[in-house]
Design a protein that fits this description.
Helices cover about 60% and strands about 5% of the residues. With about 450 residues, it is mainly α. Strand 5 and strand 6 form a beta hairpin.
Length: about 450
């Protein structure tokens, strides 16, 4: 049961990444068009339109992401379901607003219906509406009934969500601290997107001077809410300073004759987290070596969130807390320069903390452990995918192949067929197993390309 739950949450977490990927372009357009940048109204309007339609984008992205073959019929069904659900609820009770949750709900429903009924056969006189054409019809009718139920049942839930969101926003450093710790812990199994979706897109409400009310930390920040950013700011000192400092510590911990061999690796990892805020490649270099060190990393991330909240620093991002988003949100931020000394302090803490742990517990960080010859990052992607497929037990051992930013998300038949040493030689940073069929392989930012190549091999 636990394994099945993990597989389900893994699928949802992966599906959430597709609509979230829209945010960088939305935030970029919104900022570039504002008066303090280029002052182009239609550019700002373009970005704002994407933010305003986030629930619909979630419905489209999640339904297509959950569908077994990512068929457009599932995304069409998610769109129809969202439009029907929200229209019915608004017609019955105009005060109801599920926000992004309506998109998530209809996206999940459409994806489940697609996987269950994509090959349904109807009587001959209705055969035209069978198969994949049946999914949008079934989703629309289901959301009609669901909208009628939620029109009466959602009001107390909405009140509870608003109460929780308002408490988190007004909780001072407590809410950001708890969230920061949970975010890092859930990142281990790739389920942090579930928590992120609530705090970034649901909790907290703000009504701009011109426009409708918006919810969630990200949307509120870019809409001008001075209280927004509590669930984003604390990541900047960790992503831009602390984790690059950890890379420097691991580099210095390697024997001098091995440093040249690992310098490129650590430089790449440090630049990735500093510029873009993608942290998993760094985190998986020490997660399996020292879970205690990773736990301290989670705790210090929470403390960073709390400290930034206490100091009144407010920064936002559309993708992650790297330099690119720091520059993008600088004009809307509160005390953005104050983040720099906090980041330097966190960098020093991480550097000496990592040096202590590596030497005290003799951790086999890159350059210190048994040397395995990894695959060249310049190897042809199709050849690399074929090698990964062999190490995963071959075609017959894979039920489903997905990917997020840095990891393959897999469902397998027999996990005893997984060759972990071979995966690590190919460049995998870690393998996570849950239940009998859930598997994740952390391989870095080329995960989506490798997953696509593996799917092509499976279809041959």
């Amino acid at each position: 049961m636990q394994g099945n739950f993990f597989v389900i949450m893994q699928r949802l977490g992966k599906a959430l990444m597709l609509p979230i990927a829209v945010l960088p372009v939305a935030g970029l357009l919104l900022r570039l068009g504002q008066p303090d940048v280029f002052d182009i109204v239609y550019v700002t309007k373009a970005g704002q339109t994407l933010f305003d339609n986030l629930p619909l984008l979630f419905a489209i992205g999640i339904s297509g992401g959950l569908a077994k073959d990512n068929h457009c019929a599932a995304s069409l069904a998610g769109t129809i379901g969202y439009l029907v659900l929200t229209s019915v609820m608004q017609a019955i009770n105009p005060e109801l607003n599920m926000g992004v949750l309506s998109g998530i709900l209809t996206g999940v429903l459409a994806g489940v219906l697609y996987n269950r009924y994509q090959n349904i056969r109807l009587p001959e006189y209705l055969a035209f509406f069978g198969g994949k054409r049946f999914i949008p019809i079934a989703t629309g009718l289901s959301c009609l009934l669901l909208g009628m139920v939620l029109a009466w049942a959602w009001a107390p839930v909405q009140h509870g969500v608003n109460t929780l969101g308002n408490w988190l926003v007004a909780s001072g450093p407590v809410g950001p601290f708890v969230y920061g710790v949970l975010n890092v812990i859930f990142r281990v199994v790739g389920l942090h997107h579930i928590v992120n979706s609530l705090v970034w897109f649901v909790f907290g409400t703000f009504t701009p001077e011109q426009g409708a009310a918006v919810t969630g930390d990200i949307h509120r920040f870019f809409a001008g809410d001075p209280s927004a950013g509590a669930f984003m700011t604390g990541f900047f000192p960790v992503f831009m300073f602390a984790l690059p400092a950890a890379c420097l510590a691991m580099y210095h911990a390697a024997p001098k004759d091995k440093r040249a061999a690992v310098a490129g690796l650590f430089l790449s990892l440090a630049l990735t987290t500093f510029l873009t805020g993608i942290t998993e490649p760094v985190e998986y270099t020490f997660l399996f070596l020292s879970p205690l060190l990773y736990s301290i990393h989670a705790l210090l991330t929470g403390v960073s969130m709390a400290v930034c909240q206490l100091l009144g620093i407010k920064l936002g991002f559309t993708f992650s807390a790297g330099l690119i988003d720091y520059v993008l949100s600088f004009g809307l931020a509160s005390h953005p320069l104050l983040m720099l000394p906090v980041g330097i302090l966190w960098g020093l803490i991480y550097y000496f903390l990592f040096r202590f742990f590596i030497h005290r517990f003799n951790l086999a960080t890159p350059g210190r452990g048994e040397e395995n010859e990894s695959a060249s990052p310049f190897i042809n992607s199709s050849r690399l995918a074929a090698a990964y497929l062999d190490a995963l037990g071959g075609k017959k051992n894979l039920i489903r192949v997905d990917a997020c930013i840095t990891r393959l998300r897999l469902e397998i038949v027999d996990r005893d067929m997984i060759q972990e040493p071979a995966l690590k030689k190919l460049g995998a940073m870690g393998v996570i197993k849950r239940g009998d069929s859930g598997l994740q392989v952390i391989i870095g930012t080329q995960a989506e390309i490798i997953a696509s190549e593996i799917r092509e091999l499976l279809n041959q």
